[in-house]
Specification:
Number of helices: 13
Low-confidence stretches: none
Structural class: mainly alpha
Mean pLDDT: 88
Radius of gyration: 19 Å
Strand order of the largest sheet: 1-2-3
Distance between the termini: 22 Å
Strand content: 5-15%
Shape: globular
Number of strands: 3
Length: 280
């Protein structure tokens, strides 16, 4: 989903972030630091004017950048932002979701990482899917336009499978997309990996074309490009990608359905958020 927020919602989010006289009050420089940690693409220094008004204007100037707004909404609910971690982060998330409910979106936790999701029609459940602005979000991460279009073609094929009830193939598509994205991002950020991926046991490096999904995730984690929780919860996406082998699905005893597909998009979005913020 692309959170193009109503101006009043932007104002309310700004008040929540500043939290004047509240337990999480942020000074001007702290607001600028928060924006930087959220990989806000329009860096601005606080100018000393009233904080809520300044932040509202800052966010409004990027009102059409759904990816930037998504990262910011997630970042203010990130346990990394608070000394006591999840306890304070979840309290902020609860207030934020009250603001966002009219927009039919909410921040939830997947693998301990904040992810933006759509609300179902009754407003009680969150639904994960490939974001509408996925192409714009991954363009700054990948090495070429050609690779970008190949990734988006895989996403398009995955959507077709989901829409027509081919849920097992949709799971394979999600895993294939994520594995290819990771391989390109890692080798794009660290050209030495083109010579081979180091293994945890220190044995011979693995050629990029032979690097496993698990090794890609391990490498992204050791370099700090994804968080540990997102890394751990990608295990289910890796396992379900292996349903390309029917025996793997039989061994797991899983009959995929639409909920299974949505469940797999959640950890992928958590990884995407981490890749974006670590790209700044």
């Amino acid at each position: 989903m692309t959170p193009l927020l109503d101006p009043l919602t932007v104002q309310r989010v700004s008040r929540l972030i500043v939290d004047i006289d509240g337990p999480f009050e942020r000074r001007g420089y702290q607001i600028s630091q928060l924006l930087e940690r959220a990989a806000w693409p329009y860096p601005e220094e606080y100018d000393g004017t009233p904080r809520v008004g300044w932040l509202t204007d800052t966010l409004s100037r990027a009102s059409t950048d759904g990816a930037a707004m998504s990262r910011l909404l997630c970042r203010i609910c990130d346990p990394l932002e608070y000394d006591d971690g999840l306890e304070s982060a979840d309290a902020v998330r609860s207030e934020l979701n009250g603001i966002l409910s009219a927009e039919r979106i909410a921040v939830t936790y997947v693998a301990g990482r904040p992810v933006l999701a759509e609300l179902t029609s009754d407003g009680h459940e969150t639904v994960f899917s490939a974001p509408d602005d996925l192409e714009a979000r991954i363009r700054p991460l990948v090495s070429s336009e050609e690779l970008l279009q190949q990734l988006m073609q895989r996403v398009a094929e995955t959507r077709i499978c989901e829409q027509h009830g081919a849920y097992g193939l949709a799971l394979i598509g999600i895993g294939s997309f994520t594995e290819a994205l990771l391989l390109d991002v890692l080798t794009h950020r660290d050209a030495e990996l083109l010579e081979g991926f180091p293994q945890p046991n220190g044995t011979k490096r693995v050629a990029p074309e032979r690097a496993s999904f698990a090794l890609l995730l391990d490498t992204a984690r050791t370099r700090g490009w994804i968080q540990m929780d997102a890394h751990d919860f990608m295990k289910i996406v890796r396992e379900y990608r292996n349903f390309v082998h029917l025996r793997a699905q039989q061994d797991r005893g899983v009959v995929p359905d639409q909920d299974t597909v949505r469940l797999c998009w959640g950890p992928v979005l958590a990884v995407l958020n981490d890749l974006e913020t670590s790209n700044s």
